[in-house]
Q: What sequence folds into this?
């Protein structure tokens, strides 16, 4: 279905772009483009199959990430961090601090008193991508395979940062009400006492990270705060081998909107994003999950990224309001660490864009809304995918019918085309002329059905990405052995059914006049079946249902035209 639709569309584009001066030139151009297109599709399929086989046979060895190093941001804008450039050198970092455990109804985490930062974070309601008996881990420090932590601190002479030691009132905290607060105290320096407060809320992935500063010194205190993420560049485990997803940083501002900042661009120092703003957020993205610092106040801030020894840092520097002697002040920045969901815009403007539907977001968003609505009724994401595919197919029934009628008429005149090919086998010019005359007599437009196909393709691609990007599909069961629609079918049943449906559909299509094209069309179902071995089951299910409905519609239209043709003749 896909290769035929694209081939028809390519024919139309060829006729518009090159505008041959004769029917023969038009026919030759069309056939050349068909050969090129099918060759590219076949080559791409082989490349995907080979790459998937190599990954399956020789999984990439995960390098042990370097230890998290001390990285203190140095702001370029003095108005943002007046004391950043005059920071007093800290004493060598203490090797390790004490681990404080915290458990809410959705989070299980560890806080290190060294810096008072979160160094381990489990999601209690999301299973691991590989071992479903374990919880999914987002933050993890030096566990041998992954390094990803939050860090924050104050910039100013003698103020604590993420290398400073804090103390806690207890070793373990468990949420029993609607809110839980962990208070960490840093050593008093020059009459200045700093407490780091981490506040958790029931059923929430938002953590308030605040600094409370008591200034008992004789002078006013001017300081700044930084909030950052630091992680390695390793892709999350358990992802799809054949469906690449984004892992990297992202920045959002009201002016520049949502911008990804890839690790490769950070390495090359080519990352293009707004460095200064008075709004927005910065975060780290991976498939299904995001961590983001989301300052609430309209404060002038500076966003920064850097890389060092295989570790990537992304964060924000904010000013702390001046604190007079004998007064208390501070700063608070919410940290969101959780699944990517469209409703995240209620936490911070633009945070919902971390559900990445690509350039078809405007189409994918209502499609996923409809899918979610259906799932709310049937209570099964697999069934919801099937019903949504049926709805979309019904919506485009009249449009796709035009394409199938064109193919059916081509099948009907296939015997006549074979006779013409045999008659003019040695004269290509006469062959093309005779074929065009036949199309004219039979009232067949070989480029017919192109517009309906072009209209439908963006919708189906948007559905594809809405399924791929939705965390709701993660660990969502369908039936029997399909226990996770976001993972590949472990027994390859769905990909085989997918290939079978493509084979059956190819039997309804007219045989390409070119022998090479005909052979490639026979190989396509096998090649695509192998490629789909590594695709998430939800995407393969969508393709099977779409193909099955296309086969039914095409068979109905083809049968009607063939019966009418037999009666006519």
A:
């Amino acid at each position: 279905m896909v290769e035929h639709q694209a081939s028809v569309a390519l024919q139309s584009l060829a006729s518009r772009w090159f505008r041959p001066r004769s029917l023969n030139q038009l026919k030759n151009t069309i056939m050349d483009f068909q050969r090129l297109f099918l060759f590219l599709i076949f080559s791409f399929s082989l490349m995907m199959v080979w790459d998937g086989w190599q990954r399956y046979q020789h999984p990439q060895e995960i390098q042990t990430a370097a230890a998290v190093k001390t990285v203190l941001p140095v702001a370029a804008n003095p108005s943002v961090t007046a004391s950043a450039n005059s920071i007093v050198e800290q004493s060598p970092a203490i090797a390790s601090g004490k681990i404080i455990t915290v458990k809410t109804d959705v989070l299980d985490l560890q806080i290190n008193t060294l810096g008072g930062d979160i160094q381990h974070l489990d999601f209690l309601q999301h299973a691991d991508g590989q071992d479903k008996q374990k919880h999914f881990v987002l933050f993890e420090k030096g566990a041998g395979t992954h390094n990803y932590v939050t860090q924050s601190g104050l910039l100013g002479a003698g103020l604590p940062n993420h290398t400073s030691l804090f103390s806690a009132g207890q070793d373990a905290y468990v949420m029993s009400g609607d809110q839980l607060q962990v208070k960490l105290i840093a050593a008093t320096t020059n009459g200045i006492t700093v407490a780091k407060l981490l506040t958790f809320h029931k059923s929430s992935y938002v953590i308030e990270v605040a600094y409370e500063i008591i200034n008992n010194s004789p002078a006013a205190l001017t300081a700044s705060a930084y909030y950052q993420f630091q992680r390695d560049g390793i892709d999350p485990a358990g992802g799809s081998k054949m469906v690449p997803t984004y892992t990297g940083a992202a920045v959002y501002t009201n002016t520049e909107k949502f911008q990804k900042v890839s690790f490769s661009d950070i390495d090359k120092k080519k990352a293009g994003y707004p460095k200064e703003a008075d709004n927005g957020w910065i975060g780290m993205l991976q498939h299904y999950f995001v961590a983001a610092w989301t300052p609430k106040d309209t404060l002038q801030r500076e966003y920064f990224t850097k890389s060092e020894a295989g570790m990537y840092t992304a964060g924000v520097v904010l000013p702390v309001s001046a604190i007079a002697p004998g007064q208390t002040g501070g700063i608070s920045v919410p940290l969101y660490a959780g699944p990517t969901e469209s409703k995240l815009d209620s936490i911070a403007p633009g945070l919902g864009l971390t559900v990445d539907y690509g350039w078809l977001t405007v189409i994918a968003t209502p499609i996923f809304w409809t899918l979610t609505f259906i799932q709310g009724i049937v209570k099964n994401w697999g069934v919801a995918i099937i019903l949504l595919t049926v709805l979309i197919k019904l919506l485009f029934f009249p449009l796709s019918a035009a394409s199938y009628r064109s193919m059916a008429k081509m099948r009907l005149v296939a015997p006549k085309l074979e006779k013409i090919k045999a008659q003019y086998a040695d004269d290509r010019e006469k062959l093309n002329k005779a074929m065009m005359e036949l199309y004219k007599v039979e009232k067949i437009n070989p480029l017919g059905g192109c517009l309906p196909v072009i209209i439908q393709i963006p919708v189906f691609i948007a559905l594809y990405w809405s399924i791929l990007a939705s965390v709701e599909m993660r660990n969502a069961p369908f039936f029997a052995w399909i226990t996770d629609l976001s993972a590949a079918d472990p027994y390859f049943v769905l990909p085989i059914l997918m290939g079978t449906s493509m084979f059956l559909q190819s039997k309804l299509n007219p045989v390409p006049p070119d022998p090479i094209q005909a052979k490639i069309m026979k190989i396509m179902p096998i090649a695509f079946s192998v490629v789909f071995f590594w695709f998430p089951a939800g995407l393969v299910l969508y393709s099977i249902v779409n193909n099955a409905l296309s086969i039914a519609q095409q068979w109905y239209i083809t049968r009607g035209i063939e019966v009418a043709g037999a009666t006519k003749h």
